[in-house]
Amino acid sequence: MNLFWNLFKRFFMGMLYGSFLYVVTGLYFNSSSYNISDRLIFLFASGLIGLLSVIFKSERIGIVWEFVIHGALSYMIVVALNLVITPYFDFWNPNIFTTFTVEFIVIYVIICSSSIAMFHRSTREINDEITKRKQKMNQKNN
After folding, report:
1. Residue 6 is part of which domain span?
2. pTM of the full structure
3. Angle at CA of residue 66, ends 59 and 94, nearest 5°
4. Each residue of 96-114: pLDDT tens digit?
5. Angle 36-51/63-85 helices, nearest 10 degrees?
6. Do 86 and 55 touch, CB atoms closer than 8 A?
7. Separation between Cα atoms, residue 91 and residue 80, nearest integer Å
8. Which of 30, 47, 48, 133 could be 11's S-S partner, Cβ–Cβ 3.0 to 4.6 Å?
C-alpha cells in the first residue's frame, strides 16, 4: 500500500508540474484550440513523467545518468503527446525537430534546477535542525 501512495504522489506531482507548464505556456500561445480530451491527455502524460521520477530513488545509477534517463524518457512521452494531440505535427522536419528539442531541453533544465534547489534547501534545513538538536542535547549533558 505504501508503494501505491508513493507512486500516486509522484503521478500527482507530475500533474502539478504539467498543469503549471500548461498555464504558463497558455499565456504565450493560443491554447484555446485544445479540447477537454486533449487537456486530459496532457495531464495524464504529465503524471507519467512524474512517475518516471522513481528513477531518482535508485542508488545504483549516478545522478547525472538519472537525469539523462529521466530526460530521454520524458522527451519520448512529450513527443508522443504532441503526435497524439496534433496529428499534423511534422516532428521530423529538421527545423521543427531542432526547435522542439531545444525548447524541451531548456524547460527540462529549468524544472530540474528548481527541483534540485528545493531539495538542497530542504536538506539544508533538515541538517540545520539536526545540528541544533545535537547542540541542545550536548548542553543538557554538560
Report:
1. 2-141
2. 0.72
3. 170
4. 899 989 989 998 898 888 8
5. 160
6. no
7. 10
8. 47
- What is the SS3 assignment for 54-105? HHHHCCCCCHHHHHHHHHHHHHHHHHHHHHHHCCCCCCCCHHHHHHHHHHHH
Nearest to 40 by CA among 10, 6, 84: 84
Task: Kindly report the length of the chain.
Answer: 142
Dihedral of alpha carbons 45, 111, 58, 14, sign: negative
Instruction: Kindly report, residue by residue over 9-68, the tens digit of the pLDDT.
Output: 989 988 888 887 777 766 566 656 667 887 888 888 999 999 998 888 878 888 889 889
Cα(64)–Cα(61) distance, rounded to whole angstroms? Answer: 8
Query: What residues contact residue 18 under an 8 Å CB cut-off, 6+ apart?
Result: 42, 43, 45, 46, 47, 49, 50
Q: How many domains does the chain have?
A: 1
Kindly tell me the burial class for residue 89, based on how many C-beta atoms sit within 10 Å of its own C-beta (0-12, 13-18, 19 or more).
middle
Distance CA 25, CA 22 (A): 5
Cell numbers standing for residue 105: 531541453
